Amino acid sequence: MKVQIIATFLIVMIAGMILSYCVLRRSTKGSFIKKLIICIYSPLTVWSVMFFIICMTYAGIMLSWIWLWPLIALFCVIRIIMLRAEIQEKPLVNIPKGLRIAYRILFVIGLSLFLFVESRVISAMTAQVTSDLDYVIVLGAGLVGDRPSNPLRVRIEKAAEYMTENPGTILVASGGKGIDEQISEAECIKVQLTEVYGIDEDRIILEDRSRDTIENLEFSKKIIGDPSAATGIITNGFHEYRALLIAKHAGYTNVHTVPATTLLPVGIHYLVREFFGVVQCMVKYGCI
Fold it and tell me: pLDDT tens string for the chain (288 positions)?
C-alpha cells in the first residue's frame, strides 16, 4: 500500500506539473504569486479527480461525502481559469476590490481552521496508547448481516490486541442493531472477540442500544458507573479526536485514545471529511 501511495503521489505531481505548464506556457508576464497558485491548484485538481475515481472503485457512490472531491476539482479549475485570465490581463469578471479582500481573508481563515483541526485529528490518531486502562469502549461501525464492516473489523482487531496485552482491562462492546443488521453491533463485537481471538467473555460487557457515537459513550458511561475511571476509546484513528470531544462532553474525566487502523486509501477521504464532523462538534458542544 505504501508503494501505491508513493506512486500515486508521483503521478499526481507529474500530471500537475504538466497541467501547470500547459496553462502557463504562453504567459511571459504576470504576477509570480498568481503563477505559483496555479502550480498549487493544478496537482490538487489532478489529485481530486484521481481520488474520486479511487474512492468510487473501492467504496462506490454510497460513500458519504463522495461529492466533496469533484467539488474541490471544480473549484480548482475555476480558480485556474480565472488566474490565467488575470495573468493575461483579460479578467473574466471584474470583481470589486472589497470582495477580493473579503474572499482572501475568509480563505485564509478557512484554511487555517482546516489545518488546525486536521493537526488535532492526526495527533489523536497517532497518540501513544496508555496501558492498563480500567475500561475500553469499542464503538460500533455497522455490520454486513451479522459480520463486521471493514471499519468495525479493524476496531475489533485493536480491541483483541489491547485486551491480550492488558489482562486487567474490561471491555464495553457498544452498538445497537440497525435496520438491515441481523444482530446488534455489540453482540458482533463480543462474538468476534471470544470466538476468533479467544478473549474471555467475562471481560466483555454489552451495550446494545446505542445508535450513534454520543449514545455509545453516554450509555457506556452508565454501565461503567464511574466517569473518572481510566477509559480508552477504540475507534478508527481518524475518528478518535471527535470521539474524545464527545466523551468529554458526556462527562468522562479520564479518557484516552486507543486508535485502530485507518484503512487506506478510503481512510484519506475519512480524514478530510472528519474536519466537518469535528467543526460540528466544536459548535454543538463548545469544546476543542
Answer: 556 666 767 777 788 788 887 887 776 666 788 888 999 999 999 999 988 998 888 877 778 889 999 999 999 999 999 988 888 888 788 888 899 899 999 999 999 999 999 999 999 999 999 999 999 999 998 898 899 998 999 999 999 999 999 999 999 999 999 888 899 999 999 999 999 999 999 999 999 999 999 999 999 999 999 999 999 999 999 999 999 999 999 999 999 999 998 877 788 899 999 999 999 998 888 776
Longest CA span, the chain:
74
Q: In a 3-state reduction of DSSP, which class is residue 78? A: helix
* Domain boundaries along the sequence of the chain: 2-93, 135-285
Q: Can you read off the three cell numbers belonging to residue 232?
A: 480508552
Do 207 and 174 form a contact (C-beta atoms < 8 A)? Answer: yes
Q: How far is CA 2 from the centre of its chain?
A: 19
Q: Looking at the whole model, is its pTM more than 0.90?
A: no
For 135-285, CATH number?
3.40.50.620
Q: Look at the block and give the residue holding cell 454510497.
A: 62
CB 113 within 8 A of CB 279: yes
CB 252 within 8 A of CB 276: no
Tracing cell 487555517 back to the chain, one arrives at 112
